[in-house]
Structure formats: C-alpha cells, structure tokens
Here is the input.
Amino acid sequence: MEDIEHIEKEMKLINSDGRRLDGRSFDELRPIRIEAGVLRRADGSAYIEWGGNKVLAAVYGPREAHPRHLQDPARALVQCRYNMAPFSVSDRKRPGPDRRSVEISKVISEAFSSVVFKEQFPRTSVDIFIEVLQADAGTRCAGLTAASVALADAGVPMRDLVTSCASGKIDDVVCLDLNKDEDNFGDADCPMAIVPRTGDVVLLQMDGHLTYDEFQKAMGLSIDATKRIYEMQRDALRRRYSVTLEDILKEAPPAAAPVEPEPEQPPEDDFGPEGI
Amino acid sequence: MQSSGALRPIVIPGEAVGGPGLKPGPGTYSEGGRVFAAQLGIRNEHEGLVSVIPLNGRYIPQRGDAVIGEVVDQGPSHWLVDINSPYPAPLHATESPWRVEFGDTARYLKVGDVIMCHVLSVDEIKRVQLTMQEREARRLTGGMVIEISPTKVPRVIGKQGSMVSLIMDLTGCRIYVGQNGRIWLDGDDRSAAIATMAIRLIEERAQAVGLTEAVRELIEREKGRGRGPRPS
Here is the structure.
C-alpha cells in the first residue's frame, strides 16, 4: 500500500493529451501474454501476464468430490480457490484466505459453473486454483481469463471460454483496464466477465460509483476488450497443441537409452590372476 | 523423420463446428440449430454427425471397457478398485473368476494388486461395477504399468489393434492397454524401455499423420542403438 497521506492532492491520472499514467489511452489494454499447459501435475493449467499481474491457474478434475457430503448426485461441483501470494503486493499480504479472496473465489466459481457442462459428471468436482504471484489491479479478471484457458486445457466440456476485463473511472473519465495507481486513486472499478459467443454476463462487480451512463460506457469498453482477449486465449490454446513433430523431437531430452550392464571387470587384487 | 506434422486444426470450446442439418456428437452441443465444440479437440464429421475428439480429459467409465485397475480397499465380499476415473469402482466377489467365501476376499486379491478387468455397468449417476468374468481378465503380476492420457488410448491401440501389435511384435513385450489410460507391459528391461518410449511418442504425437511409421522407425533405431561399438 502506498502512503496516501503524502500523495499530492492534485495528482493527475490523465494528462492533457488524454494519456494515462502509463501512456495508454482510455480504451487501451495493458499488454497481455497467455500461455497454456505450464504445469505438469495439473490436468490443465495456464499462466497469464497482464500488465504487472502475474497469475497462475491450475485445473483438476472432474475428480471425486471431497468431502463426500458436498457431492451432488445430479451434477459436478465447480470449486475455485483464488489465492494471493504473500509477496504479490508491496506490503506483505498475510497468507491464507481472507474476506476478499473468499469472495473472489465464490464469484469466479459461479462464473465458471454457468459454462461447464456439469450434468455430464455427477458426484464429481472440478477444482480451479488461481494463484496470484504478482498483483497490479485487475487480478480477478486476469485469474479468470487464465483459469478459463486452463479449464479448456484440462479438456473439461464447456459452452465457451469465459473472458474477463475491468473498466473504471479515473479523473471523471471512463477508462478500460485500470492499473494499480488508477485503481487506488481513481473513482470506480467495475470488473466483468462474459461468455463471448453469446454475450452472457457471468460476473459483474463494482467498487465505487458510476452513473448509469458511465456504467453503460464502461460495459461497452469491457465487452469490446473481451473480444480481443478472447482471441489471445484461443491463440494460447492453439499454440499449446499445434507443435509439429520436429518441435517435439527438438524439445524432448535425448532418448534415454537403456543402460546395458558393463561387462564384469575381473576383480583387481594384489595376488595376481587366480591359479598362480 | 520424414513424417513431419501435417496437423489437423484444433477447435476450441465455443467454436462453431457445424450448421443446421448436422447432428451434435460427443464433445459438442447444439444451440439455436448450430453445433458448437464443447471441448478442446479435433473436429470430426461422419455421416452427418459432428464430434470433437478431445485432446485431454479424464477417463469416464463406459460399459464394456477393458480397464487396468489397482485394488485400493477390500470388503468381505468385494474389492474397491482404482480405475483412474473420478468414480470409485467396486468389484464384487461374485464377479471375480474365483469362488470366494464371504470374508475371504484377501486370499485372492490384496490391496496394491493390479488387475485387468472390464466395466460391467455404469448407471445414470455413474455408479460403476466391474467384472472379471471375461476371458482376458486377470491379476497382473510382474511387468510395469505406465499411465497415459485416456484420450490417447485409441491411438495407442490403433485400427483393429494395429499400433499395439506393431509395438508388441517389434519389442517382444506383452502389452495390455486399458481404456482408462493405464498400460501394462512386460518384457526384458531393454525392450520394455523401448516400448515405453514408443508409447510416449504416440501420446505426444496423437494427432499426427504417419504415426505408425514414426513409431516403427523409433523402435528400430532404439533397437539398433548399443549393438555397435559403444562410445568410450
């Protein structure tokens, strides 16, 4: 947390050219990089770098739901755990679930449970783990976007990928994808997640105040941005699975030839060959 | 290797895979008369039925599947078998090939034993029952079990078992492939290692064309290795 007391009161978040602190215009996203299939033990995984955010997502399942009493005989559970690493923010974050991360876990699992074909896997659970390694505002959107790639990577049947982005208001201007300073000193932040194919909204939250018109504008910006992010998600999945044979042979460690036992060496001793 | 990867394009959940007039098959769903992919995989169209062959995913038991399971628990009249699926799979004593007295299950199968068995039934809430009444069902002794992604099993088996018999012929290993992605193989250390490599190659290259040739080449190269003068 920055020391708010010592910040100049007239700090400008948007300069006269309409550029933001990091040089973006109001409708510009931070650079995003997504990679699928980064963890070997997970059924599906993804890593996302979204501006200063670094988030890892892992998906397990469908697997036997534990504890047993949570099992639903008609459908699968979609469970999510959003967790921030202690080193992910400038002050050490006390590890463990807190009010904020419990809430984010809940809304994210609800977002996914509306796209996963839960009826195909009764009595099981699909577990999503989102680990924030470095936070810079908009981690729930980054986490959700990565988790959606991880879910597809795990081969879980779902209606569509879920794509997420936030918009907010800074210096009375509605802007896309706030970074940490804009989030801390801005007026409002409104993360949302949509199912791009149908346009269904599966997550919508707001921190701060927006008028109806501002809210409409923020929604428009986010929906526009999710189309671009959707393409990045699809691209990450395609890259993961479209490697050619040459690539694999190049990457694969030199084929481990089974070691043949060395021929027995005659034992060396001081008494010379036997029989003498 | 000359069989460089001409890969079939993959589809991503939510992608349209067919218009009206096509029926949605496994791995797809229909909405508003159109068919969309539900899973990440390869599009396949056959006689008006569109399906997506998944590239990844868990094993969901189906009636009649041959599976390789590990006994994880025993009761007085049944064993509980781990078949690498989200659902526990009991094997009842009456479905075993032996005459088991009540409470005497441990004499035939112990926890940790590996068996080759079949899925007897799966009901609508996915309760699974196993059977060992089929001819090739048995307790597996010796050899080793490797695990692959269950979605790659059809490629390891090949058309009418062509791929697995190729590996068996070339390496001399005995191999059982379970639909649940577990493969049991038995042979001397060297050929078992070569067979494992071949199976790993199939797993990685499941979508490639000319896979059989690539596998044959790999096995022959590996068999030739170490025969000649060994590097000092």
Notes: The two ends of chain B are 27 Å apart (CA to CA).
